[in-house]
Amino acid sequence: MAKKDPYAALRIKEFNIFLLVRFVLVFGWSMQFIVIEWQVYSLTKDPLSLGIIGLMEIIPAFTMALFAGHIVDQKEKRNLLALCIAAFSLISLGLFLLTWDTIVEGWATRTILYSIYGLVFFGGFLRSFFGPTIFSLVALIVPKKIYPNAATWNSSTWQMAGVLGPAFGGLSIGWIGVHWSLCIVFGLVLLSLIILFQIKRKPILNPKIGEPVIQSLKEGVRFVFKTKAILGAMTLDMVAVLFGGAIALLPVFAQDILEVGSEGFGVLRAAPAVGAFLTMLVTAYIPISKNAGMKLLAAIFGFGVCIIVFGLSSIFWVSLLALFFSGMTDGVSMVIRQTILQIKTPDHMRGRVSSVNSMFVGSSNELGAFESGITAKYMGAVVAVVFGGTMTLITVVTTGLVSPSFRKLDLTKDIEAHEKE
């Protein structure tokens, strides 16, 4: 049976192509993000500038999220993803040019900085489409009975790219510099676009094509708020990510506290993704759908503890282990959350539900980066990280106490129902 086959989703050719596209794209995207973080902090030496990067991305991503979900549910997914990747390649090209001494020679630091922020802002606009499109496309590639297995491999691929992208980015800064590192990113984005066209166009399953935008958006929001499992998972993760944003301050820790340079920065940035990836590989063999609610609460509580340890540490290997274990706990929560979303969401509403999820969770990454930047500027980086981890623990305990139905959440019956379809 599919649930006993840890490689069920990998036996589908188009799913493997999809994973390759996602790996190359996320590798380039995550590499680009930390290279830009490094460049911005090197230009300003101000932790608030790192928070502004997050703010510049969250504003368009959040404000466009619901509308993007409506568009995704109305359009063919493969071509829409291709359009998003093509537009993203323009951002990568722009960042490459902004770090070319021949072009920016004589530019004021503020002009370069604002130009980078402008491209990040455009990237936030695109990101509002990326999440819902990818979420919807994968559901059209694999049958419903193996959604949990596909969610595990999909998340594992994302994390693997998150391991290698930042690590390679940190190393490449030292090897070839920021400018040529961004050239590599541009090439990777174009490669992902070429590979994507090996996937066939998919049917549009929404029976309400041409539905008024307002009515469509209301339907999506109502569905999320009446489905307690989805709402609970989104809310819990949103607050944890919002206040547990230690990653945004890694350039500060790498340069000023741990003093490990760009290579150490790359290793630290990759550590959470290594932990998450290893955890996800295990979940392909050991399903975690039983008692999913308690497991999700425990995982996020463990994440908060790891963030506090990282914030208090001034020893490189202790910080590295703390980030590694934070990734392991985050890997568990990510698989559970993705399984909840895939199983509980109807096909014709995947774009809109994913968009609401991006407003809750995805945007909180950037908002968390901004919160961390402000807190670090006025209270110090260590206090900012410890405060965030503490708020995560409080959120988990509060959720567990006030929501007994979430504590009892079990996905086993839902998965069995899908397997019988």
UniProtKB/TrEMBL annotation:
* Key words of the record: Cell membrane, Membrane, Transmembrane, Transmembrane helix, Transport
List the transmembrane segments.
15-36, 48-68, 80-100, 112-141, 153-173, 179-199, 229-254, 266-286, 298-325, 378-402
Topology in the lipid bilayer: Multi-pass membrane protein
> Which Pfam families is this protein grouped with?
MFS_3 (PF05977)
Localization terms from the record: Cell membrane
SUPFAM superfamilies (UniProt xref): MFS general substrate transporter
Q: Does the keyword Transmembrane helix apply?
A: yes
Query: By its UniProt entry, which InterPro entries does this protein fall under?
Result: MFS_trans_sf, TM_effector
Which named protein is this?
Answer: MFS transporter
Q: Which organism is it from?
A: Flavivirga jejuensis
